[in-house]
Amino acid sequence: MTLKNKDFCNLHVHDEFSLLDGAVKTKELVKGAIEKGHRYIASTNHGSMDGIVKFNNACYDKEKKEYKIKPIFGVELYMLEHWDKKDDFNLKQKNLHLIAHAKNERGLKKLLVGLGYANINGISKKGWSSRAFLPMEYPLEHDWAGDVIIQTGCASSPFWNAENGIDLLGKYYEAFKQDLYAEIMPLHDLDHQTNINAQALVAAEELGIKLIATNDIHFLCEKDHKVHDVILGIGQRGMTWNNPKRWKFDTHLNYMRDAQEMYESLKLMGIDREVARESILNTMEIGEKCQFKLNKIPVELPRVLEKGIDETVYLIEKCQQELEKRGLTSRKYRERAAYELEAMVNGGFVRYMLLVADVINWAKSNDILVGHGRGSVGGSLVSYLLHITEVDPIEHNLIFERFISEGRVDLPDIDIDFEDRKRHLIEKYLKEKYGEWNVAHVSTFGMMRGKQAVRDVSRLFEVPRQEADAMSKCILIRPEMDARASFSIMDTVEIFEEAKRFYKKYPHVIKYASKIEGQIKTCGIHAAGFVVSKNDLRYSGNCHLVNRRGTLTVNWDKEDLEQMGLMKLDVLGLSTLSVLSEAKRLIREKHGRDIDYYKIDLHKEEVYKEIAAGNTVCGFQIGSKGLQKYCKDLNVSDFETLADASALWRPGCLKAGITQEYQEIKLGRKKVKYYNDIHRGITESTCGQIIYQEQIMFLLFNMAGIPWKTTDQVRKVISKSEGTDKWREYKKMYAKGCVKKGTMKYDEAEEFFENLKFFGVYAFNRSHAVEYAILSYLTIWLKIKYPLEFFTAFLNYGSVDGDDAASAEGKIDIALKEAKRMGIKAVPPDINRSGDGWTVSE
């Protein structure tokens, strides 16, 4: 009887999250399993479960709301025989492996908690290994039985390698009973695997343990074994392809083999045909035992207010008090506040808003300067009333729905800028308030993009660095919203002559670089993200902690956090805020004046004269040469134009020609054509151009009557999708809405909607443009009013970023040159007058 793939489940599998060992991307692994007709597929990466959310999502069909193939969530555990001697550098212990799968939610939680324990306690302090280890007895001592399935693992199993391995196997069988399985692998070209299989067969017979056939998958197809060799080589620092010491697998059979292939290969190893057959069919038992979904976990935030205080009542009353305090008592403000509060209460965002407000207000009361806002949160009046932002959204015509649209279930994004020199104090405060183990950093996973892939493979094959660099510089970097191509190496080869010559000379480099392009290579720490949890993250069971370079980090990246019930708080450091804060201190010290940056008049003519004159060196954003010239060419004379300019001076707008078009119309050199009065009303202030995402939302609402709750969803589809069902659905919705409202004919509306796709690629968030334009304005205001204090602060804490990025020395040259232009003299250090860093001298 021929065995079918539908009756076989791969249970020992490594993908890209087994960093620089698994030579298959997660999506490709799942796709391959589906194409082969498997009903289940497992994930068992090295010592972590970092990739299981992406693995789950790759298996799940969002449209049909069902699994295309059932995922099994597992891990290859790393274990130590002599746990009490893990810090003994002189004792070389064996690297022991065991496979564990979660049967249910409890099992998943136990695996995650165990991996957290390994990362906190199981990494040698002397650094003999970077792996996170568990004691061999940990699953027994922490009650994994009943919720976790154990497989004996590969040739490095503790049962076949530890001194008392067989006794340990007996203890595991006593605890796990029918949830313990002995692995045999059909790697017929490995002598030692024959011996391991023999031990598994004997143990199975003596203890009554069921056998399962696994293949320790590291790549998808047999032909990819060399790709795997390349990845292993890249992971060995300084290694070259022809170096005899290069470590590689002794077999090329670790691919996703068909059930019949597995059967034939096991027979080649001398295993009885009936035993071989049963070992393959037995794998389905585990698939059927692990029947649970990785459902979205509700986010649990710690309580901000004291017990007994109703959070919703508090939030509403706080907003009402602030409306009165600020004199914002008109109907427009009261209705907007009520509308926003209702959305926040219904969405379950009250505690989140209070938590963010608490952090910001603590910082402000502890002499830490916080930005006026960042991103779409600027569209929220409630955020303004809570002092999360310092931008009046009604005054600046900002939309709340860009922040929270009706029906939203995910926590809205609130990014916060703090002065970078004091950012560490925010982490300290969070841990003091919510608990040392309730706060952690967020992970990031770095991909091997085209340039990096070419350089890494070239280095392995000893291609001259000059040639590899020349090739990598040709590689196209497509923007994220460009749906035409995910990767770029072969595009480059087709387009550029230099790349064609490189390909002809080093075809193997391009072949392997293209294969690994886009695959995960590294894990790191998110620059700004913090998790703040109600529960101790060591035991919460919705993540596992990782010790990344001495920093406590959760294993998920920002995309996976909320699905696993965790909240990411973005705490960003901004050098401009450090400059403003230091200048404020100097002004108070020298002049006895206390500057409140949140109350500075944004309409001072003298500031705009400086901007229009191009005197913006050292200014935030507008100090770059490109934007400096653009502001001068536009003759910027008001805040709106300043905000527009900062939004327009971006790659998308520049490539689309909108930056130049705006300038031509603004200066009266070109006339603009409006579709109708609605279009005029929404785009007249931006010279007929759609610059902002909010303008797209206004057009959808006013032209076609599309509800606000839907406009943000349409905006996302316009910005990111091409040819999808959703695109066609919204296009029809828009056209019908326009006809119903009498704003456009059906065909005209369809054409207009198609044009929105063009604008959607580059349209910017207006809230962010306004918030950051304020910072641009403040730096020029400060430079004019208090130049000595400004330049002193800038020289100590400022930076030159973006296209004009400068080193520390370069920054000094730029700042001193501008200071000299303004009549300020810089003198060398003097032991009698100098202080710590740059100072203002009498």
In short:
It contains 36 helices and 15 strands. The protein is an alpha/beta fold.
- How many whole angstroms does the radius of gyration measure? 31 Å
What share of residues are in beta strands? 5-15%
End-to-end distance, in Å? 96 Å
What's the helix count? 36
Q: What composes the largest sheet?
A: 7 strands, mixed
Quick one: how many beta strands?
15
Q: Mean of the pLDDT scores? A: 91
Outline the low-pLDDT stretches: 125-129, 480-486
| Shape summary | globular
**What percent of the residues sit in helical stretches (DSSP H or I)?**
40-55%
Q: Indicate the structural class.
A: alpha/beta
Could you please describe the fold and organization of this structure?
It is a single chain. This protein is an alpha/beta fold and 842 residues long. Helices cover 47% and strands 10% of the residues. The protein contains 36 helices and 15 strands. The strands form four sheets. Strands 1, 4, 5, 6, 7, 8 and 9 form a seven-stranded mixed beta sheet that branches. A four-stranded mixed beta sheet has the order 10-15-12-11. Strand 2 (60-61) and strand 3 form a beta hairpin. Helix 20 crosses helix 21 and helix 32 (725-741) packs across helix 33 (746-762). The chain is globular and about 90 Å long. Residues 125-129 and 480-486 have low confidence and may be disordered.
